[in-house]
Specification:
Blueprint: E1 5-6, E2 16-22, H1 29-37, E3 51-57, E4 61-66, H2 77-90, E5 97-103, H3 109-112, H4 114-122, E6 130-135, H5 142-151, H6 154-158, E7 165-167, H7 176-192, H8 200-301, H9 310-327, H10 332-338, H11 346-400, E8 409-414, H12 421-429, E9 447-454, E10 457-464, H13 473-482, E11 489-494, H14 502-505, H15 507-513, H16 515-519, E12 521-525, H17 528-531, H18 541-549, E13 554-556, H19 566-581, H20 589-607
Parallel strand pairs: 2-4, 2-5, 5-6, 6-7, 8-10, 8-11, 11-12, 12-13
Antiparallel strand pairs: 1-3, 3-4, 9-10
Region (Disordered): 229-388
Biased composition (Polar residues): 297-306, 325-334
Protein name: AIG1-type G domain-containing protein
């Protein structure tokens, strides 16, 4: 058979057919390009830059552009985007066909997703200029190909592309007839597209649309986030107001209950005092009345002859003493009467009667004076109790304004699920303060606070759910509220010193919370029972770089040995060093707001 390949030794006036090779890693794009051109035009190694090679096939000019793999891990997203733009430029004024190369024995879900990848990077319009090229036909029998075609739904997959599909052998087994048939199918697709090719203008329109959609989506996301924040703040205000009202109501109820008990106690004591005073008063009055009646009789006897009898004198003397003891006053009048000699006349007897009446008047006055004295004492006691009650109420009012004392050290735990955050919190506090690592559910809280003492310092530990690259605004507010006025240190918890996923785990946190967050971060490696002593040289390279950016602070924990308080003491010393390095200042909400402001400014500049 005559060869369909011809060397591209001289220029030709025949129209040029331009094709771009696409595919995942290892499918053989470069080898396919060499098979089409009939020579070793491309190096069959990993392609990291777009490359164009030209040749003569079937007496026509062919241009083939090889591109980096769709699923490349060597190039960054921005670099891959630059190479895609370059491939459109190399195929100027634009490719007639995108050949999507797939190995028949490697048709996986990743290959199926290439449809979406082409739409996202070249636009919906590019699909009508695309053809699937299955390679490795020789590896399947006709029966196996038929089963593969049916089981993998190749017909449905290829119908999404304007050029359908084509099938050739591997490079070493490919025949000229297969290349001829491939070019014929490409010509059919070009005719179907009325001779048009994919153009740079189409690519620019797609990129512009992509940017507009991304901007619109971001604006919509911001709008939703703003609305959610507004709802959250409103709900929080309502909850705070409800808590305030409930607190006031509860406090008023407690004060009323206490006041009721106090007044009840005072009333009981006052009733007891009054009852006791009444009983005492009644007994005293009864005894005074008896003495007064006895003295009246004795005074009467003074006017009789029997009054000189020794017995009468003794009885009058004793009665006078009793009355003196009761009234606390001197009653010398009756004593003078008792000392009167025998033979006192009628005039002297009258004088003694008048003195007796005068004495009884003094007793009545003393009785009234005692009654007034008791009333004054009762009023003074009530006044003293009232002053005590007012003083107690004033002290209670002062106590309402006294807030809880801030913790000496406030720590926030961050890390992926199962890294050992909660166990670390338990080890620090020396008790089962937290359960297993918090894993967010629709009804779960984002953060949990526990307090304790480490040595002579009060410590607050906040455990967080952190299976994303960052906390959103409401989650951050909850964390800051629990550790108000702000954390002294962030413990970034991982399970291994060879942890390599630093870029996707920790740097997004740094970008979201800023350099001030990084200054207060300490990397904490759990499972210390497995790793033993870990030095900086034992860390994974990327982890070591991140630790250096944190000031070199990292620590190893064995959460299986919570009784070993030495490791906790060493950690607290490192945290204290971090606090001292930051001038004793903790992370604040103002620092977070400043980072968000700068990010918004950068985003606005990039969009404009």
């Amino acid at each position: 058979m005559t060869s369909v390949y011809a060397a591209c030794d001289a220029a030709s006036d025949s129209p040029e057919l331009r094709m771009v090779l696409l595919g995942n890693t290892g499918v053989g794009k470069s080898a396919t390009g060499n098979a089409i051109l009939g020579r070793e035009a491309f190096r069959e190694t990993e392609t990291t830059e777009c490359e164009i090679q030209r040749g003569r096939v079937e007496d026509r000019n062919i241009s083939v552009i090889d591109t980096p793999a769709i699923n490349t891990t060597t190039l960054s997203t921005d670099r891959l985007k630059t190479e895609l733009e370059r491939c459109i430029s190399l195929s100027s004024p634009g490719p007639h066909v995108f050949l999507l190369v797939i190995r028949v024995r490697r048709f996986t879900e990743e290959e199926r997703n290439t449809v979406k990848w082409i739409q996202e990077n070249f636009g919906e319009e590019a699909l009508k200029f695309t053809m699937v090229l299955f390679t490795g036909k020789e590896e399947l029998t006709s029966r196996q190909w038929k089963m593969f075609f049916e089981e993998q739904h190749i017909q449905h997959f290829s119908e999404q592309f304007g050029g359908g599909y084509s099938l050739i052998n591997s490079k070493k087994e490919v025949s000229p007839a297969q290349i001829t048939k491939l070019l014929e199918k490409i010509d059919e697709m070009v005719k179907q597209n009325r001779g048009q090719h994919y153009s740079n203008e189409m690519y620019k329109v797609m990129q512009k649309k992509k940017v507009e959609e991304a901007t619109k989506a971001e604006e919509e996301e911001k709008k939703i986030e703003k609305e959610l924040l507004k709802q959250h703040q409103e709900k929080e205000r309502e909850e705070q107001e409800k808590k305030r009202r409930d607190g006031i109501k509860k406090q008023q109820g407690q004060e009323a209950k206490m006041q009721k008990k106090e007044w009840k106690r005072k009333d009981e004591r006052r009733d007891n005092d009054i009852a006791q005073e009444s009983e005492t008063k009644a007994a005293e009055e009864e005894e005074v009345e008896k003495i007064k009646e006895e003295q009246t009789v004795l005074v009467t006897l003074l006017n009789t002859a029997d009054s000189r009898a020794p017995e009468t004198k003794e009885r009058l003397k004793n009665s006078n003493k009793r009355l003196q003891n009761r009234q606390s006053m001197e009653t010398t009048t009756l004593d003078e009467g008792m000392r009167t000699e025998d033979g006192v006349g009628e005039e002297q007897s009258k004088e003694r009667k008048e003195e007796s009446v005068k004495y009884l008047s003094k007793a009545d006055r003393e009785k009234e004076r005692e009654r007034c004295t008791r009333e004054d004492l009762r009023r003074q006691e009530e006044s003293r109790r009232e002053r005590e009650r007012i003083k107690w109420e004033q002290e209670q009012a002062v106590m309402e304004g006294v807030s809880e004392r801030e913790s000496d050290v406030r720590i926030v735990l961050l890390g992926r699920p199962h890294a050992g955050r909660s166990a670390t919190g338990n080890t620090i506090l020396g008790r089962e303060a937290f359960g297993k690592d918090l894993i967010k559910s629709p009804s779960a809280t984002i953060c949990k606070r526990q307090d304790g003492m480490v040595g002579n310092k009060s410590v607050t530990v906040i455990d967080t759910e952190c299976n994303r690259s960052r906390l959103n605004h409401s989650e951050f507010e909850e964390c800051m509220r629990l550790c108000s006025p702000g954390p002294h240190a962030f413990l970034l918890v991982i399970r291994s010193p060879t942890f390599a996923r630093v870029n996707e785990t920790f740097y997004p946190l740094k970008n979201h919370f800023g350099d001030e967050f990084l200054k207060r971060s300490v990397v904490l490696i759990t499972r210390g029972d497995k790793w033993g002593r870990v030095e900086h040289k034992d860390l994974h390279y990327s982890l070591g770089q991140f630790v250096d950016s944190c000031g070199g602070a990292f620590h190893v924990f064995n959460n299986e040995e919570q009784v070993d308080r030495t490791q906790v003491t060493e950690l607290m010393e490192k945290i204290e060093a971090v606090v001292e390095r930051n001038g004793g200042q903790h992370y604040t909400n103002e620092m977070y707001q400043e980072v968000q402001r700068k990010r918004n400014e950068e985003w606005s500049c990039s969009v404009s």
